[in-house]
Amino acid sequence: MKVQTRHRQSTSGRAAGRRPRAAKPAAGKARPAPGRKRWALSRLGALERVQGWHGINKDLGLKGMGITVASFPAGEGYEHPHFHAEQEEVYLLAHGRGQMVIDGEKLDLEAGDLVRVDAPAVRALRSHPSSPSVWVMVGATPGHYREKDYTELEDQPAGF
Question: What confidence tens digit (pLDDT) does each residue in 59-112 have?
């Protein structure tokens, strides 16, 4: 089996047609034996139709991160400033317009904007006064993500 590893970053700097270098599988790191289902699906539907808060950790069986999807009417949100001991967070404004205050600095956001916030930074968020919003919030403790933690199986079809 031919194994190949690559960074999941922009390929704009890569020479046309050049393939990533092959990597050796990590010693003692065999793929788990098949048997139990190793994935989960949760359907929220169209994000602009999401109502309220949806913590989807249990639905997906997450162990290393937390994901919440929340919608707010215009001018409302999670306006209680908070911070974390260790958990950094990423906020994706998926629909509408929104605002965040991070360490006293106000940000005006539009759909598609992503904001990463360090654990000790004090933050709050809401919909813009003129627009409802839908947010996807992901939190995780730093130090566990491994950028190169995947192996491509080049000689196997994906099954589409």
Answer: 888 888 999 999 999 999 998 899 999 999 999 999 999 999 999 999 999 999
Q: What is the mean pLDDT of residues 14-19?
A: 40
Residue 134 falls inside a structural domain: yes
Phi-psi region of 106 (alpha: psi -120 to 50; beta: other; left: phi over 0): beta
pTM over 0.90: no
- How many angstroms separate the CA atoms of 93 and 99, rounded? 9
Confidence of residue 21 (pLDDT cuts 50, 70, 90): very low
Per the domain annotation, does 24 fall within a domain? no
Residues 6+ apart with CB under 8 A from 75: 126, 127, 128, 129
Residue 105 sits in a domain of what CATH number?
2.60.120.10
Domain boundaries, position 105: 47-140
The C-alpha atoms of residue 151 and residue 148 are separated, in whole angstroms, by 8
**14 lies in some domain:** no
What's the CA gap between 26 and 106, in Å, rounded? 45
Number of domains in the chain: 1
